[in-house]
Amino acid sequence: MLTTFTPTAGAEPAPAPLPAVAFEKTTLANGLQLILVEDRRLPIVAVNIWYHVGPANEAPGLTGFAHLFEHLMFAQTRHIPRGMADRLLEGAGATDSNGGTGYDQTSYYDTVPSNQLELALWVHADRMGYLLDVIDHKALRNQQDVVRNERRQTVEEEPYGLVHEALAHALFPKGHPYYASIIGSHTDIQNAKLEDVRQFFASYYGPNNASIVIAGDIDKAKTRALVERYFGSFRRSAPVARPAVVTPPITSERRVVVYDRVELPRVFMGWLTPPAYQSGDAELAVAAEILGGGKSSRLYKKLVYERQIAQDVDASQNSQGLTSTFVIDVTARPGIEARAIEAAIDAELAALREHGPSQREVERARNSLETALLSTIEKLGGDGLADQLNHYNQYTGDPGYLAKDIESLRRITPADVQRAVRTYLAKQARAVVTGLPGKPVITDPRLAKAKSPAKAAAKPDAIDAINAPEPWRAQQPKPGPAPRFTLPQGEAFKLANGLTVIHHYKPGLPLVSAELVVRSGSAANPDGLPGLAGFTAQMLEEGTATRSAPQIADEIAQLGAFLDTGSGADASTVSLLSLRSSFAPALDILADIVQRPAFPIAEVERQRADRIGDLIQQRDDAEAVAAVTALGALYGSEHPKGYGQLGTEPAIRAVTRDDLVAFWRRHYVPENAALVVSGDIARTELKALVEARFSSWARGEAPAGTPGDPAGTRARLVLVDQPGAVQTALRVGSIGVARDNADFAALQVMNGALGGMFSSRLNNNLRETEGYTYGIYSHFRYDRTPGPFIIAGSVQQDATGASVREIFKEVNAMRNAPLSAAELNAARDAQVLSLPGQFETNADIGASLAESFVYGLPLDYYARLPAQLSSVTAAQVQEAARKHLAPEKMVVVAVGDRKRILPQLQPLGLGAAEVRDSDGQLPPPRP
Predict the structure, then answer these.
(1) CB neighbours of residue 11 within 10 Å
(2) CB environment 485-501: b (16+ within 10 A), e (fewer)
(3) With 283 labelled, which of 91, 118, 343, 368 sits at a CA distance of 20 to 30 A?
(4) Measured between alpha carbons, how far is residue 383 from residues 120, 406, 655, 842 in Å?
(5) Tally of CB atoms within 10 A around 187
């Protein structure tokens, strides 16, 4: 799949060989472009279709229509009843199965086991050829409800979502395709008519306006024949003209203030910039990395690190077909005004315009962008390789543009960046949108739903079908022979000091992923200091005996690597991603921060302020508030798992340097740790690198002990009041099971059927049937001691009570009757057949092998897991549900407008409501 080539003689030598993807591109007689990539690393295939239509093609008064239509493509088609496609694909082991709408395109994609390629093609072809034959008012009304809930959740309830939307309004004039957000307005979504749907499909969903990438374990000749069979007979649509849109330049600064339910001000600055892959686009991507690309960027160093006036910074060049945008956004620290943030951004922009970047800054930016691009194509499906080839195909006409993309990036000089900044990022040519705490203005009319058509007219109106009926399409294709696969299990060895090293060799791309995992997380926090494990992990990047925090950030960026730290319930991690060529020096830095952190007092105070700012932002996010509130309600305030990873504000303020050092000394010892490495590095080379860097790590006794028993609330209903909220964030949960529970396999299958899959009972009920939510799911968190079982989703405010009622109905149904044979097979097969797709990237493999270490699983655990899952019976699923799903013990957490949702919840028999604050804690008792 991946080859490399070097520049021709006489050319400037490149830092490393340029990668190239071996592909084959053909065009069917009806205009459908077919791009094939043969890659046999895993027995999976990614199918990725781009229709070259998006908001850029929408008619006036129909904002959001391209995205609404994306949802409708998942409804029934002539030969596939509603809901069947999702059930069949998930049951076949599909992963990354979804769609997406960009400003210029709409995509649909699935990754399937290689023997199920024909099933994926059958589904996608029936959508392209026969959706119009059966689309009806019922499907349209349902998806209008779903999309409006999506808007509520991702724009109106999302912190700063309305502020970000206002930036597009400020940059583009009304009527411009990019003026509205991709999701559109409530009014336009609801006003869409069935005739609009039909016209849109006929105009833009013909084969000649689409391209399909199939990448993975394929035979190209056989795959071409399958595509010809399933797509070749479809009629062309009328030629689609490129939108003729002129974007007027901004000649004087535009300023807007937007109020939102947030606590910290945020400043957005935006400019209109050259279209994707035009002159200036790549240079501005480098400028964005220099200004806001992580801890080595100018804005981070000046505003976050030095002056400590900003909570977070970001800069991006958003490349689009008609016009791109360059956006800077910065969130203020508590007590800092927006105007101070704006002045600080202006000072950095002025310096970059006046003096340009240094050579090392440009190198850091180029290296980071190159590594990020290569890591994107490490994965076949989703937003990985297949999607990237479709992206290149649409915007450049060349699916193999990867090598040219990297080559053009490597050629960028400091002068190029300075020229682009001077040309496009002028002060008078920008829009400034400031988000401030306050009451948001939300236009969410409760529009009367269209009346159902009379029974006689309930069927689709008579229409002229675009494509002739072909009876053979009614037959679902049979899978090919099941592919043989062995999941990665890694090879382990130990250093003399007790450090476990787990290695998996994965050639192909020149990338290596490493994860240093310590078997201690938030469950090990001492009494009174929730969040200490996370605080300690965060401090590792903030200085060692020989490196300061800025030096660590600069060195990592110079190597084009990415370094991160974090903690969970049972583990703390330091993760690293780098190019093969820079892995050794990058591993030097990882080893240094794990073994020799300095915990400087000044850095402790910086990170203390950062964590308090993060906590304030967490309070703005209803989903996050619901999550931490559920933990507090289930485990209680005396249990370390009764809190989120940030802990509480009093605990953050109380932590001392001595507390951090003590946690590190106790838990960061080699006997309690493993280094997991996956990628393009051989075992012998890795062993030498690890011994040189970790053999001197002093031994220490691995800590023992587990947290006590949970002591959660006795209340069944817990509320967090967010006046004015347009949705309710729900959590329904109980204490679940530990990772070593004997029912693990049965619980996985049961949860898949209940709420773990898109086609699950919960999601089918609350989203696809009722239209109450954008999505709802359930999951078990399997910890060393029993973790939580949670059902989670955001629902429309006026359906809060009905949603909880339906949730309990589905839980009880799971207990009261066994799964049907079809549902059991789908849930079981989804678990088994999707496993290869969960091991695509080095990071995926590393995370799985790290889990084996944390929970004491044998290295061949994943090799044996398919057989365990395949043997699960309907009786075992029902028994697991009866044993581990106890509705009478489940706690309902609702975060929303108390005045509007409590009257809906009171009739459900949950008892008196317990009210908690936005940190998920009970208010202190009154004196």
Answers:
(1) 9
(2) bebbbbeeeebebbbbb
(3) 343
(4) 17, 18, 40, 16
(5) 14
Q: At what angle do helices 532-539 and 657-667 cross, to 10 degrees?
A: 90
Identity of residue 234? F
Residue 846 contacts residue 513 (beta carbons within 8 Å): yes
User: Is the CB of residue 369 less than 8 Å from the CB of residue 285?
Assistant: yes
CB contact at 8 A, 786 and 736: yes
Are 299 and 292 contacting, i.e. CB atoms less than 8 angstroms apart?
A: yes
Mean pLDDT of 687-692: 98
pLDDT given at position 443? 87
Cα(701)–Cα(869) distance, rounded to whole angstroms?
36
Q: Give yes or no for a contact between 128 and 53, defined as CB atoms under 8 angstroms apart.
A: no
* CB neighbour list of residue 916: distance below 8 Å, 6 or more residues apart: 629, 632, 633, 718, 719, 720, 922, 923
Confidence bin at 60 (pLDDT 50/70/90): confident
| Cross-strand bridge partners of residue 494 | 500
- 714-743 as b/e: b if 16+ CB within 10 A: ebbbbbbbbeebbbbbbbbbbbbbebebeb
Q: Is 255 exposed, middle or buried (0-12, 13-18, 19+ CB in 10 A)?
A: exposed
Q: How far apart are CA 287 and CA 41, in angstroms?
A: 36
Place of tokens 């300075």: 418
Nearest to 881 by CA among 778, 800, 802: 778
Query: What are the backbone angles phi and psi of residue 7, rounded to the nearest 5°?
Result: -60, 155
Q: What are φ and ψ of residue 317, in 5° steps?
A: -105, 110
Compute the Cα dihedral for 652, 656, 660, 665 and give only its sign: negative
Cα–Cα distance, 449 to 192 (Å, whole number): 12
Q: Output the pLDDT for position 2.
A: 54
How many angstroms separate the CA atoms of 775 and 767, rounded?
Answer: 6
Q: Are 780 and 789 in contact (CB under 8 A)?
A: yes
Let me know: does 298 contact 290? Beta carbons within 8 Å: yes
Q: Do 573 and 626 contact (CB within 8 A), yes or no?
A: no
- Nearest 10 degrees: CA dihedral of 239, 106, 99, 268? -170
Rg of the Cα atoms in the chain: 27
Residue whose C-alpha is closest to residue 887's, from 752, 733, 782: 733
Residue 912 in contact with residue 809, Cβ under 8 Å? no
3-class state of residue 822 by DSSP: helix
Tokens of 367: 């290296």
Beta pairing partners, 567: 572
Q: In this structure, what token pair is assigned to residue 549?
A: 């925090």
On the 0-12 / 13-18 / 19+ scale of CB atoms within 10 A, 609 is middle
- Asked if residue 609 lies in contact with residue 312, where contact means CB atoms within 8 angstroms, the answer is no
Kind of pairing between the strands at 106-113 and 210-216:
unpaired
Cβ 915 vs Cβ 715: under 8 Å: no
CA 79 to each of CA 62, 124, 127, 508: distance values in angstroms, whole numbers, following the listed order: 29, 12, 9, 40
CB–CB of 622/727 below 8 Å? yes
Backbone angles phi, psi at 318, to 5 degrees: -95, 95
- Residue pLDDT, tens place only, 756-795: 999 999 999 999 999 999 999 999 999 999 999 999 999 9
> Is-contact 443 187, C-beta < 8 A?
yes
User: Amino acid letter at 887?
Assistant: P
Q: From CA 547, how far away is CA 559, in angstroms rounded?
A: 16
H/E stretch holding 552: helix 549-558
Residue 120's closest CA among 370, 347, 363, 381?
381
- pLDDT category, 13, cuts 50, 70, 90? very low
The number of CA neighbours under 13 Å toward the Cβ of 861 is 17
Q: Which residues are CB-neighbours of 6 under 8 A, at least 6 positions away?
A: 13, 14, 17, 18
Number of CB atoms found within 10 A of residue 749's CB: 28
Q: What is the pTM of this model?
A: 0.94
